[in-house]
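Posting for a labmate who doesn't have an account.
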Amino acid sequence: MNVFLIAAITVDGFIAEQTDQISTSWTSKEDKQFFSERTKQAGVIVMGSSTYKTIGRPLPGRLNIVYSSKMPKQQDVPQLRYTQLPPKELIASLAKECFKEVAICGGASIYKMFLEAGAINKLYLTVEPVVFGAGVKLFGDDLSARVSLKLVKMEHLSDQTLLLEYDVS
């Protein structure tokens, strides 16, 4: 199973200015287009409840899985699920359903949880020409694992936006 992290980051390495940020207006249209195309290709997206609130609805054309400490009453929305499963158990259950790829879409605590579990094998990072100075780091403040990456591809999404693709070694 290919499990990849997908995120937009500022030049100084932040994914948001604050933990309750409810806007992705700082990212480019090219990043939004890449995110949409790549996650639809995967077929499954996984995110935390704060990221889901930022989006505000299940994204069409993908199974949306939301980590939540409070399991909401399951809504009658077939493309939306809630979970509390550990990362590797979730990935195994999705593999049993014949999914081949899963996109991990944030936020920092979800990125950290999947990376520390050894469940991510690829990263897509869109670097946007923005500096926050402070904010939410990609993996939060206390990542407990050292992870080696191999740069596989570097692509300009626009004259200002750079896409970096890494394999996890």
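Reply:
Got it, the structure tokens are right above this. The chain has a mean pLDDT of 93.
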